[in-house]
């Protein structure tokens, strides 16, 4: 934002108020219609409007053209110019042309009368070039003179036009020729005697660029699509034969970016300059191809205008550049030095300079909607006062109270009925159906077949039915990081009404590890013709066969989870429940009570998950040595027990009402929660891998810096022709190149390991989420919902922040607020972690220490989850002990907080369960007594089948 602003001197609105103007729509020139006239402003729009304005300075304003200082001081100071009111006499001409106006220029385009000083107007249309003459008709009444536009001649174009330039091509005097650039880059020349010819420049022209003529050297300059500034001699282009049209430029200069605009000025008797406004730079090049200066812009330019103050043959001539930024700032440069900055009232698309009556050197700006303004660089500052600093102490209680008040205001201002109506309307407008088609087939993806030879893929079919006409529709397929997709995005514009389209994509396992979830979500976002955006979401479950295969069950495992089903699933024969739940893995008619599943990729390393069904099928046990493998199997087992997953279709959509009823009747509870130590180890592995990747990236930056240094030294020695010194530089180059290649390979390997660690950590968090969601005697509440939501998302690291750094404030908030906090720990803790602020301080030289965030997150997450586990354990103990309170559940917020997580008590309880399991195996019981005993949640004996040998395990 500039301190000063451009003062308005005169302004008006062109007849076309739509966005129909660009940088070629404004032309400021003296048309020589009458003696002593000032510059006129010619504006052409894409709608065909052609307007000519000549602003008047009024009678009460000083004439800045005069040299008498006394007269100027009598009329007022130049800095106190008032804004003029638009008058009808300021309009010279307004005419509606039948075709859009692409460009306007003025010059001597006819040879009828060489003594006539009047200039002609050349108007470029898409397929025509017209030459007009302004004719002034004397008025016979009080309304005064009026001007008419007379067509002299026109030229039909064979191809669409892009831009127009004119000049005395070939060094002629007293007349101007015209050159039209077409969209394909070809040039069409028009001479005044009716001769016209077309030429094609040397390089290919896919993107048209501004074209200008340099009178001093009789050349054309333009920018090629390869971002190279090229200079062509007119004589070479004009005298080219039909068979030899293509000629190389006399010089070329790479500018490295697209040119927004191009202007040419002569600054001395021996030199002309070419000023190029790029997307990021402002360049000045001489007509011989030498760079005079390059100005790096720290803003996005929109348009610019260059001019020379004084006469070019005088030694005091200066080159001035006026650049407009996208924020509406006008920056004035003398060569490459900025000398003034001011703020415009609007962001223009074209800027020029004109000498109008009463204001020489005025700035003319044209807005995108036809707002034409004439201004000058005033000195009125924009005062800005720095607001007072808020030095009030930060109070958590006060901030939390304000947050609750804001939430109440938001809830009061949002009508939930509007959301339901909008969702229903979105469902009617676009119908989205997602389903898995057919059975899995062998994977054919090249990046997977070499890594996972036995992997399979399945076809996901997405059907979209559109009722109204849509402006844009986008489909996105979102899956786990371990699941690959053949095409994950579809984008369509101008979708017809009542149309139906089907899209098929292939999903497969992309990395050699199990995903955290096998849910594939399809998002459909669309924008209607009214500009309203809606989003639809559909989810589908992928077949388990893509990721798991059967294996030999294992007897013991490090991690065990017990599932209790009420009511128990129906069974025809004892031990056939697993065969009906997992028909794709168990043979038909199998009565096995144990099923082991191992990953399809890397299944030979012994990692597996075993599911054991109790005798009464009221309980199931899921056990494994790897926590990351249990999430997918546990989620699949719960879904099939509750009937939310149809084995044949593998869909998550509850389309049938019967399936909804089954899911609501069946209650699955999980007894116990895995040890938090497994989650902490996974967090530490993730932190170590990210630190290793950061270190390798630093090493790569150092090695590439050395490589650039050696390359510069090699060029210096090569220019000095010091052949003896080249051997040592070549040796250093080879060694450094080998080191760079080695570090690149290490980074690729380490990033792959980091991705596998992210997937494993996501799976463990998903496992904890399932355990807390289905925990026995787990009370509800928004804090428990927040905790489960914390554990449900994927682990992703951004370029600036790690996962630990992003999740630390959330875990800190749950740890220090709400019913999960420990009052004793809260009182003893300091208001901030000094170690964190001193260790994780980020400066320009010292990066953030990743281990500081990881250690803090691990400590607070361990205390938080341990506290939750103790609450659940205490609730289960209170229920099974049958205390005289008469309560079947424990209030989550009223129970006293335990000080630490008692892991020794859990080990003793597991030993007692194992002893009870051995006693139950030796004690004979009848079927009815067993079913009744299994139905009770407080049974002390174990119902699991105890296998004495590994060979006795069922297949």
Characterization of this structure:
Residues 914-923 have a biased composition (Basic and acidic residues). Pfam families: PHTB1_N, PTHB1_GAE, PTHB1_hp, PTHB1_pf. Residues 876-955 are annotated as: Disordered. This protein is an alpha+beta fold and 955 residues long. Among the domains are: 424-444 and 452-544, Immunoglobulin-like, CATH 2.60.40; 547-584 and 591-644 and 666-671, TATA-Binding Protein, CATH 3.30.310; 676-821 and 850-870, Glutathione S-transferase Yfyf (Class Pi), Chain A, domain 2, CATH 1.20.1050. It is 28% helix and 31% strand. It is built from 17 helices and 42 strands. The strands form nine sheets. Strands 22-23-24-25-1-28-27-26 form an eight-stranded mixed β-sheet, with no helix packed on it. A six-stranded antiparallel β-sheet has the order 37-39-40-41-38-42. β15 and β16 form a beta hairpin. α9 (676-720) runs antiparallel to α10. It is elongated. The model is unreliable at 59-79, 647-663, 826-832, 837-846, 882-907 and 914-955 (pLDDT under 50).
Uncertain segments are 59-79, 647-663, 826-832, 837-846, 882-907, 914-955
- What is the strand content? 25-35%
Mean pLDDT: 78
Distance between the termini: 76 Å
> Within the largest sheet, what's the order of strands?
22-23-24-25-1-28-27-26
Protein name: PTHB1 N-terminal domain-containing protein
InterPro entries: PHTB1_GAE_dom (IPR028074), PHTB1_N_dom (IPR028073), PTHB1 (IPR026511), PTHB1_hp_dom (IPR055363), PTHB1_pf_dom (IPR055362), WD40_repeat_dom_sf (IPR036322)
Domain PTHB1 GAE: 456-540
Domain PTHB1 hairpin: 680-773
